[in-house]
Amino acid sequence: MDQREYGDHAALHDAEWRSRVQESARADVKAMLRATRRRRVERWLVASMVLVAIVAVLMLLAGVGVFDRVFAESKGGTAVGESGNAESVLPAVDANRPFARTPAADWADGEAGIQAPPPMRVGEFSAEEVATTTARVREALIASRLDPALLTGHDPNRYLGLLAKDAAGQLAPLFGTGREPQAQALVSLIDGDSKLLPATPKVSGSMKVEAGGPGELVVRTNYLFAYAFAGDPDSPPKDPMKIVVLVRADVEYILRQGSRWTAGSQGLWYGDDVDGFGYSIACDAYKRGYLAPAYRDRGATHVPPKQDRTAYFDATAAIPAESGCPA
Question: CA-to-CA distance for 167 and 164, rounded, in angstroms?
């Protein structure tokens, strides 16, 4: 092959190479354009999805009232229905209807809220004996939580008279001796410096009956008692929970009868399964065994509750482990 032939051959290959390069370049440019368009579409889709998500979240927050609360707080208070300083938008508490706007508003008044279950035979106890026992437990709950003689007069005699002699003998020394906190799970005592409104306390709950050991009939009571107090005259309340005190009382009562028990032990006893709490209370009074509204703790710092207010008004809810009072 001479130089001319080599040159013509090289030129031919060079032309082919240039053509392939150009085609490849055009293909790369097309691919780059398609990728650019795809990225633009993807970015648009992502941006649209983010915008839709933001709008959805904003609508959700508005729907559940979060913004209502934030807006109210930005003005120095909290939303209507939340405890705080936004009470200026609420009407003053009506002393004749102090439980209005609280979860206890529709509860039964006083002893009407304590009802015994239909009597039936339980273990060795006949239906008649069960009825007699639940009626006595009902009287004990009324005497210990609603009777003014004990509630405000701090006289436990009616309540103690419903218990077995030995049980009453154990409790009697706890009253009027500074040992009232030891009886607090069984009775309600109003602090002497606080005054109840004439409104009848509200009550909600239930009792159930089951067999115990030989000669024992167990009545498990689970009740909530709401008491309305006179408000602070220097600061008329607009939130009713400023004057309403709630007590949860889960108390086991046991009837003991038969020859296995001594004469003094026969009758109604309080059991070991006793629990409960006070909500919206004055901690200083509560530590002394008495009930008073929270505003009586002037300057005291309460630990904010971890549950929604309504949870404390549910007799079926678990009793919270935390305490709202400082140690």
Answer: 5
Contact 183, 206 (CB under 8 A): no
Q: Are 297 and 283 in contact (CB under 8 A)?
A: yes
CA 17 to chain CA centroid, Å, is 82
Please tell me the least confidently modeled range out of 7-11, 63-67, 174-178, 199-203: 63-67
Would you say 110 and 148 are in contact if contact means Cβ atoms under 8 Å apart? no
pTM: 0.72
- The model's pLDDT over 49-62, given as tens digits with 9 standing for 90+, comes to 434 343 333 333 33
Q: Contact at 8 Å (CB) between 227 and 251?
A: no
- Render 258-310 in DSSP notation, one character per residue: STTS-TTT-EEEEEEEEEEEEESB-HHHHHTT-B-BGGGSTTPPPPPPSS-HH
Dist CA 257 CA 177 (whole Å): 31
- For residues 167, 172, 177 and 178, what is the CA-based torsion angle, rounded to 10 degrees? 40
Domain residue spans of the chain? 95-312
More confident residue, 40 or 273: 273
Residue 244 parent element (H or E): strand 244-256
pLDDT in tens, 208-249: 999 999 999 999 999 999 999 999 888 888 899 999 999 999
